[in-house]
Amino acid sequence: MAERLPSAEWTQRPDLAALVAALGADNVRWVGGAVRDTLLGHDVRDIDAATPLEPATVIDRLRAAGIRTVPTGIDHGTVTAVLPGGPVEITTLRRDVSTDGRRATVAFAQDWREDAARRDFTINALYAAPDTLEIFDWFGGLGDLAAQRVRFIGDARQRIREDHLRILRYFRFQARFGAELDAEAEGACAELAATLKGLSRERIAGELLNLLGLPDPADTVARMLTLGVLPVVLPEAGPKGIEALRRLVANERAAGVTPNPIRRLAALLPTLPAVAETVAARLRLSKAQRERITRAAARCAEDAQQPRVLAYREGIDCAIDRLLLAGADVAPLIGWQVPELPLKGGEIVERGIAAGPEVARTLRQVESRWIDEGFPGRDRVKRILDEVLGGI
Question: Which of 100, 107, 136, 236 would bridge 127 by S-S if both were Cys, CB 3.0 to 4.6 A apart?
Answer without folding.
Answer: 136
